[in-house]
Amino acid sequence: MDKQDYKIHIVGAGVSGLIAATVLEQNGFSPIILEATERAGGRVKTDIINGYQLDQGFQVLLTAYPAAQKYLNFKSLELQRFLPGAAIFKNKKQHIIGDPLRDISLIFSTLFANIGTVSDKLKILQLNTKLKNKSLSEIFATKEQSTLAYLKNFGFSADMIRDFFKPFFGGIFLEDQLETSSRMFEFVYKMFGEGDAAVPKGGMEEIPKQLVRQLQNTSIQYNTAVTSINEKEILLANGTKLESDFTIVATEPSQLIRNLKNQATEWRSCDTLYFETDNRKINKKLIGLLPETNSLINNIFYLTSLETKLSGAKELLSVTVVNNQRLSGKALVEQIQKELKEFCGISGTLIKHYSLHKSLPKLSQLQYEVPPSETRLTETIYLAGDLQLNGSLNAAMLSGENAALGVLENLEGLFK
């Protein structure tokens, strides 16, 4: 049996599934991807509305991600890079802090910002040094505690945690109490310190689009929903049964595989709203943070501060809400507009509201990666997706790679 004759199916055309297909192709196989929606990308998608590029949820690519460096062509993505810092709206004033060692323009605003103490700023330098010298494998082998406990134990003041760490990392972890594992905090902090936060010029969906373009011998079947997966068989929603020599599940597996029914993934949700505004209140390429107690808004960002392929007539502002306090629809929008006006002096017209119920998997005992053999669920079924590791784009890529390598290990003896 030749390599091309093997029927290797990948369920899900998100980043993880696309990387799995890439690795299989590189080793001479021709996989088939089954995707339930009309396009690839999974949770990484961009819509065009009123001439603006709207990512489905405010997302960034961290250029220091090792897997991203391995599988993506950064130059062709035309990455637009953020400055390493934040604009913090506190007491109706804007305070800019950042890493002056990486961008000298931030030195005076950081030194004189009324955010944290001198001790806090020295501790940030200590934290930078500590994590620069700590490998990724060491980070994910360290005993877990909450990020909040980690920051307190490191000696940061309550004000610094409230004004910077909670809104900044709360927006990344999509939870406002910093309950997320300290392993994830150290990993993300290290990645921010060693590279840039960036968005492709055409929006985040340019990442899966690039991965799709790089595939030569993979067929992708869109609008093809899978109902269940069994050994060597896949049942589609339309009743079709597919024979499958190997199946890589690059989506949440608990709904598809019988013996995983009681292991459903918990998810963190968020709301992302896009507003059109007449002008920009943050003049630099910085994320805006709102540390006000009980405010809905976690962070804001002017997408038009970056160069984009498409742009509407005015400024485009994204607003991220990690705890909507049970508000929805019109009531949520009106409260956000009120907060924007009161705390930031911003008036805007709503363009689009994304209510994202499955934004990030809620995980514990986080891992950086697992051996390919550990992706194997049964003789012919393998698991991929960031929910297998740590809930990041890097994890999505590594899990897809490792699941594909698991299949290759299984076949290794047949092609020597």
TrEMBL record:
- One annotated GO molecular function: oxidoreductase activity
> InterPro entries, from UniProt?
Amino_oxidase, FAD/NAD-bd_sf
Q: Which Pfam families match?
A: Amino_oxidase
What is the top-level taxon of the source organism? Answer: Bacteria
Q: What positions does the domain Amine oxidase occupy?
A: 15-404
Q: What SUPFAM superfamilies has UniProt attached to this entry?
A: FAD/NAD(P)-binding domain (SSF51905)
Its recorded name reads Flavin-dependent amine oxidoreductase
Question: Which species does this protein come from?
Answer: Maribacter caenipelagi
